[in-house]
């Protein structure tokens, strides 16, 4: 299951807010003297979470939400695909699968069956930064799922007899997600060319096929013992529970898990230059439109010039954040591309990337599309950054997403747990709108110069067979 980051949540919600029924939240009369809802929310915590650390080192965040008699229970391990050892890519994801194979007090497969019998749902996901396990159940069943989750964190069996069958499941999953999709295969290869095939950022989260086949039972047990410790985990509970009774129950259940320390992430710095700065792939399976991508190495809140992270969020939106963005106006509105977008996530462990990706129309020459795309970037740099109006518009639209994010039961656990697990403070999520409103035009311009104008970059084309790639368009 794809992890939901704070950026993705806010971005999706902002799109709804500015195009649908929630657009009125942004409207302000010309002579208004009080702040709009989007502005007012910047002055208080988004979720009002309470954070405590249990004696065994487990950090627990609690968000009381009484909209419905349900609860979300999310356990995060501060280890994802980025922590896979060289030569064993995919081991974090493989271990995620194996944690459903039973523990000291729960038989293999019984975890999900018990949750389903209670009318709830459960699942898990692996991202580059975390592995997460979650359940949504009726509020009175919190104790049940907490006991089962704590049990497998403390005593997962990882039965060797089920290893090979699960390996085949994962290989089939890889084949469905990657092998059967020209675009997924292209982006996987592009990441490896941008960062390096054995760089933590260049290895696929699901793993290279030959390395999935090489993962042994001892490797899984070693990774589990090293990483699945209370001090290296975060628990977030949101829903219709609260008070001292909640803390007593959680402390009694999760506090019994043997203590273990946090494990530092040993992540290599980005390469001085992409190993493959220009990638072109012609795929005979491609029946639809081509794909163009350009990526730059970028700092985040945890690596490099962290002060640029929030301005880069604004830059992403004004450059490629849907209708009204510079790239949309230059490429989609004139009919050169079907879609275009920019991507960036500052809440990651270590370095990240700033991306532009687009799908040109079939009857438009790839060279024209790439030249137009890079001309938009060049114009932004030549003009000394965006306008004040563009920055204000982006901040307003992104802040609107914060209002809608409050309603989803899973939003708070994923946003809070993801941030805490990469070493960021709770305030990173709770007061994100306030930080966003503090971003200035000059800061966005500086971020654009530092990343789009100076950082190592790579570009790539995925094209149908027989279509020639254009010469690279430079700034």
From TrEMBL:
PANTHER family per UniProt: NARDILYSIN, PROTEIN YHJJ
Keyword Phosphoprotein: no
Residues in the signal sequence: 1-32
Cofactor: Zn(2+)
Superkingdom: Bacteria
PROSITE patterns xrefs: INSULINASE (PS00143), TAT (PS51318)
Matching InterPro entries: Metalloenz_LuxS/M16, Pept_M16_N, Pept_M16_Zn_BS, Peptidase_M16, Peptidase_M16_C, TAT_signal
Annotated stretches, region: Disordered: 262-282
Protein name (Swiss-Prot/TrEMBL): Insulinase family protein
UniProt keyword annotations, A-Z: Hydrolase, Metal-binding, Metalloprotease, Protease, Signal, Zinc
Family, per entry: Belongs to the peptidase M16 family.
UniProt key word Signal: yes
Domain Peptidase M16 C-terminal stretches: 217-398
A Pfam short name: Peptidase_M16
């Amino acid at each position: 299951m794809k992890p939901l980051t704070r950026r993705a949540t806010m971005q999706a919600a902002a799109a709804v807010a500015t195009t649908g029924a929630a657009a009125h939240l942004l409207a302000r009369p010309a002579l208004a003297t009080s702040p709009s809802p989007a502005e007012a929310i910047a002055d208080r915590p988004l979720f009002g979470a309470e954070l405590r650390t249990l004696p065994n080192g487990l950090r627990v965040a609690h968000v009381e939400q009484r909209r419905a008699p349900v609860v979300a229970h999310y356990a995060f391990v501060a280890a994802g695909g980025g922590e896979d050892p060289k030569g064993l890519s995919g081991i974090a994801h493989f271990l995620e699968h194996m944690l459903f194979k039973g523990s000291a007090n729960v038989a293999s497969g019984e975890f999900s069956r018990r949750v389903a019998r209670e009318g709830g749902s459960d699942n898990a996901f692996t991202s580059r930064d975390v592995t997460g396990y979650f359940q949504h159940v009726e509020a009175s069943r919190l104790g049940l799922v907490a006991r089962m989750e704590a049990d497998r964190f403390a005593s997962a069996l990882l039965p060797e007899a089920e290893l090979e069958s699960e390996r085949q499941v994962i290989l089939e999953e890889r084949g469905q997600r990657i092998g059967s999709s020209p675009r997924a295969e292209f982006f996987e290869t592009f990441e490896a060319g941008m960062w390096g095939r054995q760089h933590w950022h260049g290895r696929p989260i699901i793993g290279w096929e030959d390395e999935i086949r090489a993962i042994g039972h001892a490797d899984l047990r070693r990774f589990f013992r090293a990483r699945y410790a209370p001090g290296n985990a975060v628990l977030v509970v949101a829903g219709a529970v609260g008070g001292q009774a909640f803390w007593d129950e959680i402390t009694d259940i999760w506090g019994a898990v043997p203590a273990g320390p946090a494990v530092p992430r040993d992540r290599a710095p980005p390469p001085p230059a992409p190993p493959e700065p220009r990638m072109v792939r012609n795929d005979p399976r491609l029946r639809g439109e081509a794909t163009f991508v350009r990526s730059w190495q970028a700092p985040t809140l945890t690596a490099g010039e962290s002060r640029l992270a929030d301005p880069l969020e604004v830059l992403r939106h004004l450059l490629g954040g849907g209708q009204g963005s510079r790239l949309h106006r230059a490429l989609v509105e004139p009919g050169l591309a079907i879609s275009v977008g920019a991507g960036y996530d500052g809440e990651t462990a270590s370095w990240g990337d700033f991306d532009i990706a687009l799908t040109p129309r079939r009857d438009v020459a790839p060279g024209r599309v790439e030249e137009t795309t890079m001309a938009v970037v060049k114009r932004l740099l030549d003009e000394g950054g965006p306008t004040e109006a563009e920055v204000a518009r982006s901040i307003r639209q992104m802040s609107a997403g914060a209002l809608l994010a409050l309603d989803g039961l899973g939003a708070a656990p994923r946003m809070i747990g993801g941030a805490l697990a990469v070493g960021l403070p709770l305030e990173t999520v709770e007061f994100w709108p306030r930080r966003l409103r503090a971003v200035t035009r000059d800061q966005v311009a500086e971020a654009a110069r530092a990343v789009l104008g100076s950082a190592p970059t790579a570009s790539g084309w995925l094209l149908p067979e027989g279509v020639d790639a254009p010469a690279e368009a430079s700034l």
